[in-house]
Design a protein that fits this description.
Order of helices and strands: EEEEEE
Oligomer: single chain
Radius of gyration: 25 Å
Shape: elongated
Number of helices: 0
Strand content: 25-35%
Strand order of the largest sheet: 1-2
Length: 152
């Protein structure tokens, strides 16, 4: 695999990466595959598929870095999907569940501390899924209070 020397424009305003000057000496035949490694990009807070748009142009007409770029000659445009493979699991060794009462069939308060394996951002879409074993009964409308504390 050969490496291509190119220039990169990052636009945080429009959430775009513009790769330019890839072919300074010669072109590449149709059907060729390119791979880009982009590092230090923060993953989305959702495990739902997120669509990215890939667009190729013949040249740049005007460039104001970070603000706007105008292009000439649309070659192709298409979607690419980014999807996380699995949610990040919480290490069972970092969580010990405590209950106010250990009497069989009595209602109790569970305290579930755990260490988070990834940074959590203050944004909508962050989900923590707590699955209790079948021995526990959680009835919709009967769960009276749910509180979280720590990093929130």
């Amino acid at each position: 695999m050969s490496q291509i020397q190119c220039d990169l424009i990052v636009s945080p305003i429009s959430d775009t990466l513009i790769v330019k000057n890839m072919f300074k000496t010669a072109g590449v035949p149709a059907g060729s595959t390119f791979s880009f490694i982009v590092n230090r990009v923060r993953n989305p807070l959702s495990i739902s598929a997120i669509e990215m748009t890939l667009t190729t142009w013949t040249s740049i007409i005007f460039e104001n870095p970070g603000l706007s770029v105008s292009f000439r000659g649309l070659i192709d445009k298409g979607p690419g999907l980014f999807k996380a493979k699995l949610p990040v699991p919480i290490d069972p060794a970092s969580s010990i569940i405590n209950a106010d009462s250990s009497v069989v069939s009595e209602q109790t308060t569970l305290i579930i501390p755990f260490k988070i394996p990834v940074p959590v951002q203050l944004a909508l879409g962050c989900t923590i899924l707590i699955t209790l074993p079948d021995d526990f009964e959680v009835v919709d409308g009967k769960l009276t209070q749910f509180r979280g504390w720590g990093i929130f």
